[in-house]
Amino acid sequence: PRPEEILAILELDIRGHRMAKAAIEMGLWGLAATRAGTSLARLIGGTRDAIPIGISLGIQPDPKALARKAAAALAEGYHKIKLKIKPGADVAYVRAVRESLGTTAPLMADANNAYTLAHADHLAELDAFGLLMIEQPLAWDDLVRHAELQRRLKTPICLDESITSVERAADMIALASGRIVNIKPGRVGGIAESKAIHDLCARHQVPVWCGGMLESGVGRAYNVALASLPNFTIPGDISPSARYWSQDIVSPEWTMDRFGMMRVPVDKPGIGVEVDVARVDALTVRRAVIE
After folding, report:
1. Structural domains for the chain
2. Catalytic residue numbers?
3. Could you report the per-residue pLDDT of 225-236, keeping only the tens digit for each?
């Protein structure tokens, strides 16, 4: 079977477990690109040779601490700064960053399902700060209340955990539950489903961006390839290897230049990096063989 057929085959007998299925599906995409002698980015229709990079900043002890971290990120060249928020650590924190960095800094907030519709008026206070979006403010499985909240906010809602398939993305668009989509290939079942969501959103003028889940350099390779598709118009959370790893398990490691750009390895077949087998062996604590 072709890589784009794998998810449907895996769905026949096993419900859910999209992340495990994605691991198989994505590996086969990398293999297909290697066998075809082309880069994964080009195989799936990518059009970019470099992509802009965003950063995600966790909740800090106080607003000033967050503002300092955001200022440092902006100075490093990041094209989008995501601020994690939760009840009790939201409006004052975002205000501090906006006042520190000025009106043009590309800021967004990520709520990670932390609010309910009862917080709508409070969340509307974020409209004053010119955010690119607020990500996943309500429960992951609630498109209806997200639609109600979006009607009450000027700030675009971006859905993340809610988008588990192309069908869920279509539901979001039909219900007007949000205006932006975060695509994580692991969450939705791999490259083919990610591309289907990308294509659907492109047809409906819904911008998308690529989220991150602390991937190793292998998983990051797939995110980089995916983010080279044309409707990924918002910088993704695809930080360089050094942000999370003292030493990655791939060679070369993923890097960002001083302009906040990461090169897409379009001139190399496959995923564009090699696994450092010695590094993997050094980190391995347990082995299992499935036959």
Report:
1. 3-283 (3.20.20.120)
2. 84, 184
3. 999 999 999 999
